[in-house]
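Comment thread on ticket #2218

A.B. wrote:
> Attaching the input chain for the structure job we discussed in standup.
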Amino acid sequence: QVLGHMTATAKLTTTGFLKDLVSSRFRFDAMADKDVARETAGGPGPTLARFKEQITSSTSPPGPADTWLGEVIVHAEDIRRPLGIKHDYSPEALARVADFYRKGNLIIGGKRRVEGLALRATDTAWSRGSGPEVAGPAVSLVLAISGRPEALDDLSGEGVSTLASRMK
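C.D. wrote:
> Ran it. Output below, let me know if you need it in another format.
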């Protein structure tokens, strides 16, 4: 399903996004559910094939490029982590997404989630905020900012309990 979501997003243009949103009566979740159902039809093999067809896609729905960079990183981790597949991301990409997510509440809710906390990556030179510290690998900080509770196991510091309480 996550791969279907990533495939659908890679196929969307601004016009297509707006058309789909209108046809879903401005219900974003309904639109996404319809897209995922379409892209996952036929099972895992066809789903993966449709995803591979989009690898060189340069289209995107409306929104800043940081949104799509975050989609790729977070959803790739949604797939990789349960399968035990490790991946190294560019420290610059992780910092860019962490900065973007922690500044906004629209859809992701990152600003509310990390407000009043000091975030510090332990594997790169990135830190932001003030307050009780939350420290860990940059990719885990990105996942936590985006609301993925499984990332909390990778984090330490007196701010982790506050962050955890904001994911409910």
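A.B. wrote:
> Thanks. Noting for the ticket: The two ends are 23 Å apart (CA to CA).
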